[in-house]
Amino acid sequence: MKKVLLLFYILVAHEAAAQRYFSKNASAHFYSYAPLENIEAVNNKGVCIIDVAKSTVEMAVLLKGFQFKKALMQEHFNESYVESDRYPKATFKGLLLDAIDWNKTGTYTTRVKGTLSLHGVSKEETATALVKIANNTISATADLQITLADYNIKIPAVVSNKISKTVKIAISVPNLIVRQ
Amino acid sequence: MKRRSAIILVLVLLALVALFVGYKEYNRPPATAAQLKTSIKIEASQLALDYAQNEAAANKNYLGKVIEVAGQVIEKEGLNILIGDATSQTNISCSMDASQAQKLNSVQAGTSVKVRGVCTGYLTDVELDRCVFVN
Questions:
Q1: pLDDT attached to residue B115
Q2: Does A71 sit within 8 Å of B93, measured CB to CB?
Q3: pLDDT tens, A77-136?
Q4: What was the pLDDT predicted at A74?
Q5: Is B123 on the interface with A (CB under 8 A)?
Q6: Shortest alpha-carbon distance between residue B11 and chain A (Å)
Q7: B28 touches chain A (CB under 8 A)
Q8: How many CB pairs under 8 A join A and B?
């Protein structure tokens, strides 16, 4: 009886641990604080996959999907800064460094380290993430900061007072569900 | 003297108009697809197929363009609707503009729709943004 139970638990635990969690509504919100103006934009259609067995996270956003309040900013962002016609996507592939008990409901803090690919440049970035485990869903938030020059994103001198050299990015994935 | 004041007045008025136009342009919000002219009309299934087969080529044709897509609604969530074929791996994900909220009430899975939006690219589905319904 004990052996059967043990086998059962191993199977169930393996099932839960082998799952991939998926969301098509991950949001990325970036902020640039500068003396003359604060610029921010949000993208709510990001795709995020968390592989629980490998402790990996992958996220992708379409740069043309970032919404700005002002059309001119959106146009400059797409045409001059990230050149979204040439590089339509920004992707992140990383590892969740700190242990998470995926089978136990709760909130966990972890560092995430991985590669961010943006504007044709791939660079290692580290973020801090908060992962909330509920019955069948996972939600997560993460924060990171990037330096625009690292990604060859050139800010003309004319507007250098309006755009900060580093940009904060807040990621929010409210509802990752198990992918079939 | 009168002539000179007239000229100054005209210049001041021109400057004010320029300032006003500049201010409006600076604060212009992004256009919804309703205000943009459609460049491509296509069936949802064809657009999905084009992207699934060759993303780079499809981006050359569709990325950043205003597209009018016809198809069936698979699912609706908030302001987002998925158009295409439930058996297909790739469909068209449309982010409807807030102005379409009322029209969205009469749309559900199975409804045939025509949607105009800006193509922002391809993740797991082809993404259209700032979408409006077309009659």
A1: 96
A2: no
A3: 999 999 999 999 999 999 999 988 888 999 999 999 999 999 999 999 999 999 999 887
A4: 94
A5: yes
A6: 27
A7: yes
A8: 60
Q: Which residues pair with A122 in a beta bridge?
A: A117
Closest by CA to B62, choosing from B115, B121, B114, B117, is: B121
Mean pLDDT calculated for residue range A135-154: 92
Point out the residue among A60, A67, A84 whose CB comes nearest to the CB of B123: A60
CA distance B131 to B37: 12
ipTM of the complex: 0.86
pLDDT band (50, 70, 90) for residue A178: confident
B112 membership: H or E segment, kind and range: strand B112-122
By CB atoms closer than 10 A (0-12, 13-18, 19+), residue A24 is buried
Interhelix angle B44-53/B55-62, nearest 10 degrees: 130
- Of A76, A87, A45, A73, the closest CA to residue B130 belongs to A45
Of residues A64, A68, A70, nearest to B120 (C-beta) = A64
Q: Closest Cα to residue A159, out of A87, A73, A30, A42?
A: A73
Q: Which residues of A touch B (CB under 8 A)?
A: 24-25, 44-47, 60-65, 67-72, 74, 78, 84-85, 88-89
Nearest to A92 by CA among A57, A129, A131: A57
Contacts of A24 in chain B (CB under 8 A): 93, 123-125
What is the reported pTM?
0.87
- Please report the residues numbered 52 through 81 in chain B whose beta carbons come closer than 8 angstroms to any beta carbon of chain A: 59, 63-64, 77, 80
Instruction: Tell me which residue in B29, B118, B129 faces A70 most closely, judged by beta carbons.
Output: B29
Cα(A162)–Cα(A34) distance, integer angstroms: 5
Is residue A22 predicted with pLDDT exceeding 80? yes
Lowest mean pLDDT among A14-18, A117-121, B72-76: A14-18
Q: For residue A146, what are its two tokens?
A: 């990037």
Q: Out of A44, A62, A74, whose CB is closest to B30? A: A74
